[in-house]
């Protein structure tokens, strides 16, 4: 299916690839009157200049569709670009005049510190939240190293690279305290964005203190349900693994977003022919639709890679009505 069909499924027309939808129910807050559909454009793990390869053309494909779809906001879920030689990337990204949000990924600090890449993006804080369209959105920063004395330090100039997996992908205590308070004060159903997964990952040793984050989600949802508030964490979008997965845990729906560019295996980087990304639609009735792209590998790859790693986001359509358990 070409992009014309992809855009047609979004209620548009235009000239790219396959769509796959997942659908589940999240009731919007009853206090939001005259609510309209909220549409989000999302892309993850672009990896501009990773292995020296520019990805302006790949981002342009996403941005061309963004300009046609005209979502309410766009967000990239980490591993986006570097502070130098990214003028073309930022020019493409800034074509969209609506709200634009960033998530820090580990490779965004390959050659700089957090402050430097955040300045390029116009990102005021490494973690933050905002309300829009009857939902509360939370952006997290999972880019901390745990040292031998168990203190945490920021990712900075690839300092995470030489260290073993169990020392990576942590979230600091002040952020966890902020998250707990932020969820307690939320007025609407919550959707979270982060780079490194807390669920669904095969990299079990590289999830840091994911258990603490999941416990915060669990406890916040229990408190919301007991209080009769429609403010539970409902969905979490994650990147990092260059994989395409969905799972449900304690009533929360987790989406692992594939890379826009490639999958990395023991045999190296295997690039996708076309960019992968998705559009998310939140309907006032409570439905969430993910409409994503599917492609193929750009070059010949071993069958074991084809069998294990999908080149999509995603080819499922599911209706879920799961509720958090008390």
Automatic annotation (TrEMBL):
<dbReference type="InterPro" id="IPR051918">
    <property type="entry name" value="STPP_CPPED1"/>
</dbReference>
<feature type="domain" description="Calcineurin-like phosphoesterase">
    <location>
        <begin position="38"/>
        <end position="243"/>
    </location>
</feature>
<dbReference type="InterPro" id="IPR004843">
    <property type="entry name" value="Calcineurin-like_PHP"/>
</dbReference>
<dbReference type="InterPro" id="IPR029052">
    <property type="entry name" value="Metallo-depent_PP-like"/>
</dbReference>
<dbReference type="Pfam" id="PF00149">
    <property type="entry name" value="Metallophos"/>
</dbReference>
<protein>
    <submittedName>
        <fullName>Metallophosphoesterase</fullName>
    </submittedName>
</protein>
